[in-house]
Amino acid sequence: MDRENMPRTGGVLHHDNNPSLGDEAGEAVGGVSGVVAGAAIGSAAGPIGTIIGGIAGAVGGWWAGRTATEAISRFSKDDDAYYRNAFDSRTDRPADRKYDDFRPAYQIGHVAALNPDYAGKNFSTVEADLQRGWNNDLRTKYGDWQAVRPYAEQGYVRGSSLGQTTRNVANKAVDAVDNIKDRVDGNPASKPGPDPTDRRF
User: Is the pTM here over 0.70, yes or no?
Assistant: First the structure.
């Protein structure tokens, strides 16, 4: 499913009725350990699936559901190109490492921003949950959490910004429809322009 057709409400990702392999793995996550969950999702989604599986086993909630695995597909080619350019532009990046070594950190930050439980929260508030998914295999392959943390944070900040933009556009559309309704029904409690029936953003 492409990004434009992904079902969502108010900028929050919701699952559809056509489960993919990743969706089915996500449905199974809630009742198994993080290691098994990570392996199940990881087989369909690579390192990011393993991270989500580890978080699901430790934290549960949104991370343990189908919506979290669907969120992986929201990391688009445009996002990947953006983060690659951002990595190449960093003056503090390790000289002996490439973008691909940090892609999973960018991805987990980006995907975390789609978690409705994290809406309005800064990175330091949600970091402990993300760090739980950064297991020994990932530390061996990509580096310890402190080494990848800045990239996860950048992913989270950008993902949060994109999510807020989506919510703002949706709220403005709802307000425009409300304004038309106000003109038609002449309700004195809600008139064209900002009023108590409008969304806050």
Answer: no
Cα atoms in the Cβ-side hemisphere of radius 13 Å centred on 66:
12
At 13, phi and psi to the nearest 5? -75, 130
pLDDT tens, position by position, 144-176: 999 999 999 999 999 998 754 444 434 444 455
* Phi/psi at 92 (5° precision): -100, 10
Q: How far apart are CA 133 and CA 89, in angstroms?
A: 27
Q: Are strands 12-13 and 8-9 parallel, antiparallel or unpaired?
A: antiparallel
Between CA 194 and CA 187 the distance in angstroms is 14
- Compute how many other C-beta atoms are within 10 angstroms of the C-beta atom of residue 194: 10
What are the tens digits of pLDDT across the range 105-130? 999 999 999 999 999 999 999 999 99
